[in-house]
Amino acid sequence: MTRLQRPAIGSQTDRPKLATAMGSARQSLLHTDNAVVAFAPPDRPRPEGVRQLERMARLLAPLGPPVIVFNASHSGSRLLALMLGRLGVFMGSNLNDSEDSLDLFDLVKYLVEAHAPDYSRLFVEGDPTLAARVEAAIASHLANRAPGQPWGWKLCETGHALPVISRLFPNARCIHLLRDGRDVAFSPFVAPKARFWRKIYFNDDQIDSWRGLRMTQRAYRAHGHVFNAARWVNSVTLGRTHGVMLGERYLEMRYEQLVADPQAELARLAQFLAMPPVDFDAGEVRAQSVGKWRRQRPREIAEAMAVLEPTLGAFGYGEGHSAAPTRLVGAISRFFRR
What we know:
Radius of gyration: 24 Å
CATH class: Alpha Beta
Shape: globular
Distance between the termini: 50 Å
Order of helices and strands: HEEHEHHHHEHEHHEEHEHHHHH
CATH superfamily: P-loop containing nucleotide triphosphate hydrolases
Number of domains: 1
Strand content: 5-15%
C-alpha cells in the first residue's frame, strides 16, 4: 500500500497561479513580491426588487425607525405592547383587543400569501403593488400619532415577513417575544384552513394534510394542541433565523420573565430602545397562565411534545433547560454588528 504523503505547501510564487486557476471565485488579484491580496469583484447593478425596496425605505425614513414586536400567537405579547405604550411608543391607530395592528396585518398577510417563505423572487423582480400597499398600511397605522412620537407595532406574524420589513425599515428595533411552546400548544387559536394560516403553520399554502390530519376545523378541534405545537416550532424558528441577522437591532424576551419581574424587564426593554426607564403597574400582569400545560392530560402533553422537541429544548424550555440559548443568541447578534 502506498503511504499517504502530506502535500507540500506552495510557495508565494505559486499562489498567484493557484488563485488565478480558481476562476469560479471570480476575484481580482493584486500580486506583490511577498503576498497575494484578494479583492471582491466590482459591484454589479442591484436587482429591481432590491432597488424598489431601497426607494421605499428612503421615503419611509423621515418617519423614524419603528419598534416591531413579533412572536408565536398566544405568547403574551399584549403585555409587551402595553409596556411599550408605557414607554411612550405609539403602537397604532387601529388595534384589536390583543393590541395587534390591523393595518399592518393587511400588509403582512399580503406579503406572506404572495411571497413567503422564499422572498428571493421579490428581491429580484419586485412587486408592482407593494409600494401602494405599504403606503396605505403605514398611513392608516400612524393616523393618530403625535408629531415626532416614537412608534412601532405589535403583530405576531410579522416575523414571517421580516426579510422584507427589515429592508423597508433598515434601522427598526425588533423584539421577539418567546413563550414556552407547551403553553402555546394548549392555547386555542385559528385552524389552518385559509392560505395565510397554512403558511403560518407550515410555510405551505398548498398543504392538504399533515400527520394524517386534514386542514379542517374538525381536525383542529380534536387535535388543536398538535397543530399549535407545529405553529410554535415554525414561528420561533423563523423568528430567530430572521432576527439574528439584524445584529444589535434584535432582542429576544421571554413571557415568563415578563410576568415574574415586569419592572426589571421593562428596564431592559428601555435600555434596548435607548429610552428612560419608567414604572409599570404590576396589576396588569397575569401570571396564572404560566405553566398551564401541566394541567392537561398526559396523553395530549406527550402528543404535543412529540412535535415540540427538539426545538423546545433549543429555545431553553423543557426539563433540564434554562435561558442559556437566548444568551447565546445575544452573543451571535453582537457578532453581526462588529
